[in-house]
Amino acid sequence: MMMKRVSLLLLFVFSPLLAWASNCDGAGNCYVYASATGSGNGSSWTNACTGFTGTCAPSSMTRGVTYWVAAGSYGGVNFNTPVSGTSVVTVQAPTTSNHGPASDWNSSFAGQAVFSESAISTSYWTFNGQTRGSDWQSGYLLKFWNQTDGSGAALNLPNTTTNITLEYVELEGTGAGFPNNISTRDQCNTDNCGVWGDVAIFATPAANNFYAGYCYLHNTGNEQVSMNQGVSNTSTWEYNWFAYNHTGQNGLHDEAYSILANNLTIRYSVFQDISGSGQITTASASESSISNWAIYGNLFFWDPTYNALNGAYQEATNANSILDFLGENLSGYVYFYDNTIAGMYNSSMLASGVGASTMAIGGQNGTYSLGNPTVVVENNLWYGCGWVYGDYTPYCSANVNAVCTYDYNASYQGGIGSGYDWQTQATPAAHDYNVSGSSSPFVNFSAATIAGLQLVTPDPFASHAGISLASPYNFDGFNQVTRGANGTWDRGAEQIGAATSPPAPPTGLTATPH
Q: Which domain, by its residues, includes 401?
């Protein structure tokens, strides 16, 4: 009888510790800090886990709990906590103003938490870095960085997942310091040569209900996003900055996106110095059925330094189009609205077929069943681009069953000779606006910034307004203004009428962009 009482007493005494082992502070918070010196049970900042081991190992993490991750290096982690209904695990960086309820917080804990090549292997995860710099390329407090694996990814999704959310997260590949650090370059240009073919995000076979917003994906040996091993349902990307794919100069098939999806939205994002077959492609070599793509309000540009690479090792090239389909069976709609494409021209693009096409949507002829989507291309602006129309097959020529509308687009030649087919279409539509000569519609294109790519005042489209579109396509995400509020619908991604400012965070976030 005495033994039974002792056992019960021990169970009572240690039950709070057992609760801590699975729930940390018992109130939905666990703390992780690489330099913590306490017990390591995650119950407070003093006693924070020093990594994703022990109490905070993925096998011990608890659904519904927020894991606050302070500054430090945490190695590669496989986030594979088993699913429990729709309960989410949140991995969140602390800031000086929002760092969890533990009373022993110290502002010195704030800073960037860096993971090496990692994976999310189960569903229902949110990674929230809470903040970034106003340039969209600095100040990230959560970072995944693959520095060494030439065939890997900063973040892998090796299983079919649902409800993965990335907010204010930086993802960097092996090409750090490009174009100045030549040690990461293969410097070869034959098919499939080289060793640096890493990506920022690799998903197979599908990532459903995937969201990435307010992120920075950059300096990868190959593309930034590879999601073409299966068809993902509902994929939303917004307010992201993509820069420098193909930093390995590796002869591989590159782009910013290689993706297959139904209900894909890519909006209010920047694509800086992306080369390859296109900016956004399917690149799957399959006959997959996909539907409903909306690409709107984005900036695509090459800055002058990148442009000067002039096609060497397949850099500063754009072979097919901005949005490039390779024969998939398309249904529903494809909308290409309010995008700016700028500075994508160099002397290597003097002849058609030499990485020279910046037309809106390209397609591949062949034996595939291409479907009959509704395709609308309106209110886009090209500046200083080679072969705006191009010799590659426009999608609506490749797929004669598509129902297509191309109108209200504009092109500023920016000094490129008139023989290089700079117009928005081979035969301009009724409301297309093509301006030859060396004029520029931007505040300062050479600055290679969101503010520099604003339209000048007075409005260059006052007498050549774009067409008004319904919500959600009637919004300028870079300047956070409703398009046409000043009486004119401007063409391209930015609407005249407000100073550039960082976008507001998504509803429900505690983020405070600065």
A: 280-289+310-514
Alpha carbon distance 59, 57 (integer Å): 5
Is 454 among the domain residues? yes
Measured CA to CA, the distance from residue 32 to residue 49 in angstroms comes to 5
Mean pLDDT of the 400-420 span: 83
Instruction: Output the DSSP codes for 485-502.
Output: TTS---SSS--SSS---P
* CA pair distance 290, 12, nearest whole angstrom: 57
**Position 148 in a domain:** no
- Cα separation, 336 vs 502, in Å, equals 23
Residue 243, classed as helix, strand or coil, is strand
Q: Is the residue at 492 inside a domain?
A: yes
CA distance 46 to 106: 10
Query: From CA 244, how far away is CA 450, in angstroms rounded?
Result: 17
Parallel, antiparallel, or unpaired: how do β-strands 481-482 and 475-476 relate? antiparallel
Residue 476, in any domain of the structure: yes
- 419's tokens: 């023989």
Count of domains forming the chain: 1
DSSP 182-240: GGG-----STT-SS---EEEEE-S-EETEEEES-EEE--SS-SEEEEEEEEEEEEEES-
| CB of 452 closer than 8 Å to CB of 494 | no
| pLDDT above 50: residue 296 | yes
Q: What is the pLDDT of residue 381?
A: 96
For the segment 13-61, what is each residue's pLDDT rounded down to a tens digit? 333 333 333 589 999 999 999 999 999 999 999 999 999 999 999 999 9
Closest by CA position to 456, among listed 510, 495, 402, 503: 495
- Is residue 166 within 8 Å of residue 91, measured between CB atoms? no
Q: What is the DSSP string of 64-118?
A: T-EEEE-SEE----EE-PPP-TTPPEEEE---SS-S-S-TT--GGG-S-EEE-SE
**At residue 265, what is the residue type?**
T
